[in-house]
Write a structure and sequence with these properties.
Layout: E1 12-17, E2 27-32, E3 41-47, H1 53-65, H2 67-72, E4 77-82, H3 86-96, E5 103-106, H4 111-116, E6 119-122, E7 128-131, E8 134-139, E9 142-148, H5 159-166
Parallel strand pairs: 3-4, 4-5
Antiparallel strand pairs: 1-2, 1-5, 3-8, 6-7, 8-9
């Protein structure tokens, strides 16, 4: 499992873009790591699945609500990562009104989850291999803080906990 001080893996996530700009076309666009992380401070959190109860009712909304506080604490961007496709992440972001606050990044093949060692096997529950629930602070591509949930629920990877750690 990835640890504090480790660099995030060099892989590519996908982001659904609704408005073209900065070289991005409408639709799914690649987000190549570590280039997207270079020189930035990122509050990254991962969820087992878009539109699932805890993710939709508490985890993502907490980061949306605290977006301004994260910016004030020196965070350049907030990223939400899930093992879903870019279309699902885009739709979930629209439903949660994340525009300008949280980037919704798809790890459709679980490449990022596997590379970080932060997977959750929900085979038999109809969900297959997913990402574990966690939050991390990433500075210039390296993990500066890591909060991995141990079991079900949301007790250490919520927005308030990560924000308190970086203030």
């Amino acid at each position: 499992m990835i640890q504090i001080g480790d660099a995030l893996p060099a892989c590519t996530l996908m982001e659904y873009v609704e408005v073209p700009g900065d070289g991005c076309s409408i639709g799914p666009n690649p987000v190549a790591l570590p280039a997207a992380l270079q020189g930035k401070t990122i509050a990254l959190f991962a969820v087992p699945g878009a539109f699932t109860p805890t993710c939709s009712e508490t985890h993502l909304p907490g980061f949306v609500a605290q977006a301004d506080a994260f910016k004030a604490a020196g965070v350049d961007e907030i990223w939400c990562v899930a093992v879903n496709d870019a279309f699902v992440m885009g739709a979930w972001g629209r439903q949660q009104q994340v525009a300008g606050k949280v980037r919704m990044l798809a790890d459709g093949d679980a490449v990022f989850a596997k590379a970080t060692g932060l997977t959750l096997d929900l085979t038999g529950k109809g969900l297959g291999l997913r990402s574990a629930r966690y939050s991390m602070l990433v500075r210039d591509g390296k993990v500066a803080q890591l909060n991995v949930e141990n079991g079900a629920g949301l007790s250490v990877s919520d927005a308030a906990t990560l924000l308190a750690q970086i203030q």
